[in-house]
């Protein structure tokens, strides 16, 4: 679905007069592959290059060096720009900056309308997309009256109405309360599992990454760790050295293990910890 080969991205810094004064290397030699249908999480502290990477998947940025292919489309080819953007839809942090319609269903219809989809087909897609994120009952409402989590799900519906193969979400839950966060993540998981849409989720919340098929951890523009959630979260000290948390229950299990209990690394859920503790007592 996605192939990134030796990607480098330099931003040009400018002085007060707007003259170039230097460069910042935001992506430094990143190579990775994402298979169709995978649910990927990207973790990393602020400034590690996650958003820059996301923008390359949508051809919002062009490689300084290296290359990115989205479903085989080379993002360096400007003639493919709209094909790339239609293949990999983007959802950003702040839903208020992404909603333009006065009515939910109208907002969701904008993307397909701009693509020239016939009217009848647009309505079909709007209905399907809103149902997929459990927002169909709100179709006649004004987006202003929705909660943050509901707005973000409308944004996701707007993206899936364009029938992308892949959705890239850049901290979509950062501005939401816990219940809004859970709803958005559930919607993303449903799309992945029921519709086979490839999901790339950038997040600060470790709990949201537990269900991913694969995690990439970024630091200083590089992918420094990767693996299944269990593999990555087993490496508690390394994650902490990168100023990242691991899920709370993983950390608790790690501490219990350090204190001498025979608990394996990489515990991801309360149920797993309970089971491990039960075995300790036997
Ligand atoms: P993250 O999303 O992980 O917080 P970003 O991709 O936003 O990281 O930023 C990576 C690096 O690139 C940071 O050092 C940041 O300051 C720099 N950067 C991001 N956007 C720009 C820009 N438009 N101009 C110059 N530097 C930028
Ligand atoms: Mg960012």
The tally of structural domains comes to 1
Q: Bound compounds, please? A: adenosine-5'-diphosphate, magnesium ion
Mean pLDDT over the residues: 94
CATH superfamily heading? P-loop containing nucleotide triphosphate hydrolases
Describe the main β-sheet briefly: 6 strands, mixed
- Element string (H = helix, E = strand): EEEHEEHEHHHEHEHEEHHHH
**What is the CATH first-level class name?**
Alpha Beta
End-to-end Cα distance, whole Å, is 47 Å
What Rg, in angstroms, do the CA atoms define?
A: 20 Å
SS elements, strand count = 10
Estimate the helix proportion, in percent.
25-40%
Task: Assign an overall shape.
Answer: globular
- Shape-level CATH architecture: 3-Layer(aba) Sandwich
What does this structure look like?
The protein is globular. It is built from 11 helices and 10 strands. The protein has a single domain, classed as Rossmann fold, CATH 3.40.50.300. A hairpin with a 2-residue loop joins β4 and β5. By secondary structure, it is of the alpha/beta class. The strands form 2 sheets. It has a 6-stranded mixed sheet, with helices on both faces. Bound molecules: adenosine-5'-diphosphate (ADP) and magnesium ion. Magnesium ion binds next to α1.
